[in-house]
Specification:
The complex is a heterodimer of chains A (179) and B (447). Chain A is an alpha+beta fold. Chain A is built from 6 helices and 4 strands; from the N terminus they run αβαβαααβαβ. Chain A has helices at residues 2-5, 17-29, 46-49, 57-83, 96-122, 159-167, and strands at residues 7-14, 35-38, 146-151, 173-178. Classes of the chains: A alpha+beta (179), B mainly alpha (447).
């Protein structure tokens, strides 16, 4: 058991997006639960293959947008009609049509900020150090190589057995990821 | 006839990556770059000098006076904001419309947006007269106990433009994250590795991350699309809500948005034509991109032309004598030269884009884009200056003449824009590497 904690996982390298998607599918069918895949560009359907089904980003953006719009309108109402009522050309203090533009802009601003920072937070970024970077070949993951990892925390993980399984997927290389 | 491909055949993930990252990582800065950057930097200094003198002396050094209280500052502000709009159109609207050819021009078009908005932002700040009080525009609690006046389009503009600047910067930055990771992994320089590594937030390309990333990117595009339309609409409200003849028309919002995209695409072409030539990127920014941009210019140019016609028609048909006079004054008044030049630049010359040969000729497109940029600047001059200089009362007519300080500030912002652009080309990938990879045939997953 002690040795297992020093290992973060086992990583296999592939040449193409097609090979990676197929390998990910086979790995999850083989019963591995804690796996991840790395690619130099987004691949449609790959996240589902590694067991990712609930993307929370849209909800975060929705909440951000509603918050921004409500704050924007409430701010204008309170400032123009409650805290500092000012008669401009006899218009009502609560002249809602004039408040629409800023309400809209605040909706977009808050929704956009939530999209970016929500995505980063959910992804756990920024994270300048990560065990996968210990694998020298992994630097090609941002260029033209595709990687699949089984984490050592997976109940089915077994250094020899997983390696044998990976070999059946015909990868380009297999590396142990030190933690 | 088959149209040109969006990416030259024969490229692989590796070659695309190497070719684009080499511009930043291995290619030495040439003399041409230093000369270009040097000139742009000196012009930036000239801008700072003229702004410094402005702060010392006040807006009296400019040509603005009564009745023309909105001179070059507003003309240039609207011109620059408009140029920025093409970047958002390319990165957001074309993404939603699944126009994948945009992938090779969206990065620097977004950078162009950011720098154009920065150049635009200079003007409202300095034309308020007392720039140290510019923060009054924001709803910040203060000891005077007053708040901004939210019923004014000028306040809407503050929110629209600052939201636009923020969202454009975020959109640009998250687009850069995966490419910064690529640069981190490609460079041998230890310091650069740390800098790019930090900037990329430790991006590792995990499938889960990509999924959230794409969702966020798509949602941002969906948010930026109505935003960009709203920004120039609100800019046009600055005019259209006023009662000055020549401003008070309902055609302004669509006409302003079309004009913005028109000038923005002209700037995209003015930038991309030299960039693809100098950095040998003809394989990525192909004839197809030039032709598509030319078509967008032609279409938006016709919308702008329609705007001119409606303005003319309503001046005649509307029956308002002041509107009718505005029309007459444009055609025959003291600024008639500028108005006719505007029609030539924006309406007549761009019609040559109907000719296919010219749509695919870089030299011709470069020249036409320059003409359009001049034309769109003149349009804002006509709207701002010509409407104000002769309004309702003959006794309050006057003339506006820009001073050397007006010109120095304006040309200085052009220098600043290009200085930023030169720096951007050297330190960040000018073409989105990861989005280019998705265009390659090998990116497709075969079942």
């Amino acid at each position: 058991m002690a040795k297992r904690d020093l290992i973060y996982g086992l990583m296999a390298e592939f040449d193409s997006a097609t090979a990676l998607v197929e390998a990910a599918r086979k790995t999850s069918h083989a019963g591995y639960k804690k796996i991840d895949a790395y690619s130099p560009f987004p691949i449609e359907g790959l996240a589902e293959e590694v067991g990712f089904h609930h993307d929370e980003v849209p909800l975060v953006v929705l909440i951000g947008g509603i918050l921004g719009g409500s704050l924007g309108y409430a701010m204008q109402y309170w400032m123009s009609a409650v805290d500092y009522p000012l008669n401009i050309g006899g218009k009502p203090y609560h002249s809602w049509p004039s408040f629409i533009v800023i309400t809209f802009e605040m909706t977009i601003l808050f929704a956009g900020i939530s999209a970016v920072f929500g995505m980063l937070a959910l992804n756990g970024l920024p994270m300048p150090y990560h065990p996968v970077f210990n694998v020298p070949r992994f630097s090609s993951a941002s260029k033209d190589r595709f990687f699949l990892i089984v984490f050592s925390s997976d109940t089915k993980y077994d250094p020899a057995g997983t390696r044998t399984f990976f070999e059946s997927l015909n990868p380009r290389s297999i590396s142990e990821v030190p933690s | 006839m088959e149209s040109a491909p969006v990416i030259e055949p024969g490229h692989t993930f590796g070659t695309v990556t190497e070719k684009i990252s080499a511009i930043v990582l291995t290619r030495p800065a040439t003399n041409g770059w230093f000369v270009g950057f040097g000139v742009a930097f000196m012009l930036t200094m000239m801008m700072l000098f003229s702004i410094g003198y402005l702060f010392l002396k006040g807006t009296g050094i400019w040509g603005v006076t009564i009745p023309v209280g909105w001179g070059f500052a507003i003309v240039n502000f609207v011109w620059w904001i408009g140029i920025g709009h093409a970047g958002t159109l390319i990165s957001a609207i074309l993404l939603l419309l699944r126009q994948s050819w945009r992938n090779s021009i969206n990065r620097f078009a977004e950078a162009m947006t950011l720098f154009a908005v920065s150049a635009a932002g200079v003007f409202p700040l300095i034309h308020v007269g007392r720039p140290w009080l510019a923060y009054w525009l924001f709803p910040i609690p203060n000891t005077m106990g007053v708040w901004p006046q939210f019923r004014s389009p000028l306040m809407w503009d503050v929110f629209a433009v600052s939201t636009y600047a923020t969202i454009s910067a975020l959109f640009w930055f998250i687009g850069l994250i995966p490419d910064l990771a690529t640069l981190r992994d490609r460079t041998d320089n230890k310091a650069l590795k740390i800098i790019y590594g930090m900037l990329s937030f430790g991006w590792r390309g995990s499938a889960r991350h990509w999924h959230r990333y794409e969702t966020a990117y798509l949602l941002l595009a969906g948010l930026a699309t109505p935003l960009v339309l709203s920004v120039h609409t609100v800019v046009s409200f600055d005019f259209a809500v006023g009662i000055v003849p020549g401003w008070h028309t309902t055609i302004f919002p669509p006409y302003f948005v079309a004009g913005a995209i028109y000038s923005g695409f002209a700037m995209v072409l003015m930038l991309s034509i030299p960039i693809r030539k100098i950095y040998g990127l003809e394989g990525f920014i192909t004839e197809r991109h030039l032709q598509n941009s030319a078509k967008v210019m032609l279409a938006t140019g016709l919308i702008v032309g329609y705007g001119y016609m409606i303005e003319g028609f309503m001046g005649w048909y509307g029956g308002d004598r002041y509107d009718a006079f505005t029309l007459w004054n444009r055609l025959h008044g003291p600024y008639a030269f500028e108005y006719w030049l505007l029609l030539i630049c924006n309406l007549f010359i761009p019609q040559v884009l109907w000719i296919r040969k010219l749509r695919t000729s870089p030299v011709a497109l470069f020249i036409i884009s320059g003409v359009i940029l001049v034309g769109m600047w003149l349009e804002r001059f006509v709207i701002v200056v010509m409407s104000l200089h002769r309004d309702f009362l003959t006794s309050s007519w006057g003339m506006y003449y820009p001073t050397r300080w007006d010109w120095m500030t304006y040309i200085g912002t052009i220098g600043m824009f290009f200085a930023f652009m030169f720096l951007f080309l050297r330190v960040l990938p000018a073409i989105s590497i990861f989005e280019m990879r998705t265009l390659l045939p090998e990116a497709e997953v075969k079942e």
